[in-house]
């Protein structure tokens, strides 16, 4: 199964550099999927470190250009947060409840992250930034007999220091990717009871 979904900028954080962000989610197994974030616009105006081989786990990736996924299983209050930076750095966290009890997810495998930045596919189109992250959650033993609720998001930092916040859906008020309204995408149970 593959879904292609647009991210929307938060109304209070416009972005001069980015025209669109789309995420292609491909389910590769019960606990394995690929996320492909496609950013179009003035890519040269986006602040981001270059991709480095062997990049490791890092905290506070959200302070700069970063792509994120949030995952909640069924009606649980606990959820997971995944961060992917264009540099190849990443992290995965488990939270017990809304913004509470955040710890690094010890069972998360390092995702395979690739970043491509540059020219357009066709001359009439804007340049692209494409980040692909393949996530294997098999070791987490997350249940597969309930729907998975997913929030997809991005933080774009422009070279002038301005940040914009993009998501499938935004709750009222300040940008908040942890808010339950942001878990907008539902994947059916991979293995129904």
Structural class: mainly beta
Helix count from the secondary structure assignment: 0
Number of strands: 12
Q: What proportion of the residues is helical, as a percent range?
A: under 10%
- Quote the average pLDDT: 91
Protein name: DOMON-like domain-containing protein
Give the key terms.
single chain; 193 residues; mainly beta; Immunoglobulin-like; 12-stranded antiparallel sheet; globular; DOMON-like domain-containing protein
Give a short synopsis of this structure.
With 193 residues, the chain is an all-beta fold. It has no helices and 12 strands.
Please, could you describe this protein's structure?
This protein is mainly β and 193 residues long. Strands 1, 2, 3, 4, 5, 6, 7, 8, 9, 10, 11 and 12 form a twelve-stranded antiparallel sheet that branches. The chain is 0% helix and 45% strand. β1 and β2 (18-29) form a beta hairpin. It is built from no helices and twelve strands. This is DOMON-like domain-containing protein.
Indicate the topology.
Blueprint: E1 2-9, E2 18-29, E3 32-41, E4 66-73, E5 79-84, E6 90-95, E7 103-104, E8 112-118, E9 128-136, E10 148-157, E11 163-167, E12 185-187
Antiparallel strand pairs: 1-2, 1-11, 2-3, 3-9, 4-5, 4-10, 5-6, 6-7, 8-9, 10-11, 10-12
């Amino acid at each position: 199964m593959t879904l292609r979904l647009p991210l929307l900028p938060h109304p209070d954080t416009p972005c001069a550099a980015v025209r669109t962000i789309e995420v292609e989610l491909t389910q590769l197994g019960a606990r394995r999927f690929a996320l492909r974030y496609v950013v179009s616009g003035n890519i040269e105006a986006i602040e981001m470190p270059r991709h480095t081989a062997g990049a490791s786990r890092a905290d506070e990736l959200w302070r700069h250009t970063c792509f994120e996924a949030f995952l909640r299983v069924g009606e649980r209050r606990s959820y997971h947060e995944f961060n992917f930076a264009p540099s190849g750095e990443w992290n995965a966290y488990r939270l017990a409840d809304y913004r509470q009890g955040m710890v690094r997810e010890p069972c998360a495998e390092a995702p395979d992250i690739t970043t491509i930045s540059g020219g357009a596919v066709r001359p009439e189109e804007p340049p692209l930034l494409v980040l692909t992250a393949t996530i294997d959650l098999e070791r987490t033993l997350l249940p597969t007999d309930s729907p998975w609720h997913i929030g997809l998001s991005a933080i774009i930092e422009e070279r002038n220091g301005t940040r914009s916040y993009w998501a499938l859906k935004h709750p009222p008020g300040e940008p908040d990717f942890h808010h339950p309204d942001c878990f907008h995408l539902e994947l059916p149970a991979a293995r129904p009871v």
